[in-house]
Write a structure and sequence with these properties.
globular; 6-stranded mixed β-sheet; 6-stranded antiparallel β-sheet; alpha/beta; 2 domains; 383 residues; Glutathione S-transferase Yfyf (Class Pi), Chain A, domain 2; Rossmann fold; 24% strand; 13 helices; disordered N terminus
Length: 383
Amino acid sequence: MPRYNADVHLTRLELANFRSYLELNISLRTGLTIAYGANGAGKSNLLEAAYLLAIGKSYRASIERELVRWDAAATGSYAIIAGHVIREDAEIELRVGLDCAGGINTVAKRIRVNGVAKRAADMVGALGAVLFTAEDIDLVFGSPQARRRYLDIMLAQLGGQYVHALQRYQRVLTQRNALLRAIREGRAGDDELAYWDASLCAEGAVVLGERYDTMQRLAPLAIEAFDRLEATDKLGVTYAATVPFDARPTRESFAAALERVRGSERAAGMTLIGPHRDDLKITMNGVEMAKHASRGQARLAALGLRVAEARLIEERRGDPPVVLLDDVLSELDDRRRGLVLEEAVRNHQTIVTTAELGQVPTRFLEGAHRLRVQEGSVAYETA
């Protein structure tokens, strides 16, 4: 088993007025932790809070108001999600505040890292984390947007220029689409596109290049993980780019592709190619999984992608991520539960939620930390 720096983990989680938690302050331990309790007790809320500290936003809420307890939001109060991370002999405090003082439907988000105000994008990467959920089946059956989001969150945690390039690309895309609509309606001329084309190609080539390079390593890791989970079928994962390129994406290849679709874009009033239109092509035995796979097969493919994500983050960052498994054991047989947990516990810190302890194979339950979750309260108990 790999040896890791024992000082890299999430040591504490503090919540106030977050979801079902009025107040919570709990230490988190290394190794395997099993958070168990009845459905609706707040197990998923714990993992949501931990993952929010890693990626800067909720993976479940469509609006941040949903994260604040109703009574707190109604009285103009606030929610706090905070965590302490030990990394390279230093402690990092991550804090996200959601202030409802402006009204029940208005939330002001404030982020601090070690007490210093930051943007959400600047917090990403302080804590590496991978989240497995029952909804991961959408990586196979869901929209291309779900698969792009999977890539974007993973790449954001890998550091580098990706997050800021993606943000710049999205801003340019918004402006370019507005201009294309104006051209279609006769309110602007084609000559105004030159600046936005150049900017789109510059930022888009960075985003596309980062995604492509990452997929060169991610795909073999996902295939390897799927082989361990489902030995009889063969997974395929490729990046389906809307901008053709040779060896690697460039500004020039992006610009040439834009020129080819210029007439169609004018007619549509929107940008028709680029990272915002790309997808992951996921196949099994050479056939597209979304059209032919069973739910069981799709779930195993999604698990393979998550395992690959964890391994890639470990490779790139130098430390394994915190692994969060939210009710993924219930739909697996005993053998695959064991295989998934074997992958998970390779990491220094793993938190698993379940409604039934019997779903955790005995060899993992023995020696694991147990968190009893009930009605907004959480406490350790002995085995």
